[in-house]
Amino acid sequence: NTLIGNCGYTQETAEQAVADGHADLIAFGRPFISNPDLVERFKNKLPLNPEADMTTWYTPAGREGYTDFARAG
Question: What's the longest Cα–Cα distance across the chain?
Answer without folding.
Answer: 43
